[in-house]
Amino acid sequence: MIETTLKGNTPDIAEENIQKLKTIFPEVFTENKVDFEKLQQVLGDYVEDSNERYNFTWNGKGRALRLSQTPSLGTLRPCKEESKDWDTTQNLYIEGDNLEVLKLLQKSYHGKVKVIYIDPPYNTGNEFVYPDDFRDSLENYKKLTGQVDSEGNRITTNTESSGRYHTDWLNMMYPRLRLARNLLTDDGIIFISIDDNEAENLKKICNEVFGEDNFIAQFVWIKKKKGSHLSKTTRSMTEYILCYSKFIEGIELYGEDAYSDKQQPLAKRTNSVKQLTFPKNIVKTTLGDGVYNANKYGEGTSALIFKKDIIVSNGIVNTEIVVDGPFVWTQSKLDEELMNGTIANLSSKFGFNVLRSDQSEKIKRPSTLIDNKVNVGTNEDAYNETIELFGQAGIMSFPKPLSLIKFLVNTITYFDKDSMVLDFFSGSATTAHAVMQLNAEDGGNRKFIMVQLPEPTDEKSEAYKAGYMNICEIGKERIRRAGEKIKEEKGLEAQNLDIGFKVLKLDTSNIRKWQPDYDNLEQSLLDYIDNYVEGRTEMDVVYEIMLKYGL
Fold it and tell me: Domain 70-255+365-508, what fold?
């Protein structure tokens, strides 16, 4: 039977609708009030940039919003020959502009990603790759998505204008974060690595996209063991990781087990003196066999006074123990704990400790300071990890340490080891490596989706000399090597570990665009009978259908 409480007023329909609106569009609320101009934009009724009045704005924000709403005209083409374990793997490696890829994932992966980690380009004053520094092989992406005009000029950024130092970066991040939020499960979270240059602006964007109420933490990661001596002001040794949830309700983060096998002292000198009675044959002890007389043991306020002789045999106190001391528990609390399975121990120095029955279920929440105390390494460790995998230095610049990504992913997937992990600035694929490593360690079945622009490597770089023509080649090779290394180290424990990945590549649609010759329309119609792009396969078409219809 469901009980209801009858109230004197009818339901506040307006308030209910506002809450529904807030759930769907958290970004349209400012100080708990609806910004109707913003709502118009989200719903597709655009307004001019000059009329924007939102409290955090920049030149081009309206266009960036529209860019996130513009449908993609592309597709993801399967590349079986570059994949690993194609027929069995559930992991994806996607090559392409992440803005277009995020659009293409909206149907199939809407509300399915548990955790997103990204390490986007930091705004260091140099022009960053996303989305402006494309090469000729990807020029088609820009024209398809409106990032350039017919002359090849960028229309959303203007890096030659010094007044757009932050603007270019904001215009790059804003549409991607909006699309990324849609992919999160209701209890999903996103981690974003950032430095001082854009930390403040990133938080403002995230407050708008995810909602201020869904802010979880700004983690501080110790990235260096020693700071740089080149700076004339301070030695930078930290970076930040912003964390937001899709919906904060029910979010639970794991840090570490709390005293899962650690005994806790039952007496503390600052407590008032109480008398406790322990039943016979209950208390374990490290005292040797024999009779121990009633006496005072210990000094000062920490002393315990045993009221009766006790007899010890085979590590158990066979007699009832009556003792006075500064105990943290009362008699009723002790009785309750013992009944629930808590183990009491008497040490050889006559101190009482307890191992509570539910300690294995207790956890510590993660600290906002991430350093070696939680077994997270530094940039130096990341550098050494790439050397160990590739057998040489210089293959990848500025990777994050494996331990950092493992720590972050585990905070939310510890309770759901069958979840999806997305990284759409995947770089050298550290996140994929971390997911496989975590699965090997705890028996999980996490899946990953890596997205990376195939940015060409510098011809003078060690990566180029080693045969890696672009960053994607490095990422895919890292996953291959890391997976085999994990399986070799874990042996039979990892025999069912998924270390494969399907490679998909961003391309134009498999459906030919209708471009009739009006002087010879009949021939144009005949030509369009076969409306698939020449050279495309049935598998290409199947994957496009699956993406576009969310199958």
Answer: Rossmann fold (3.40.50)
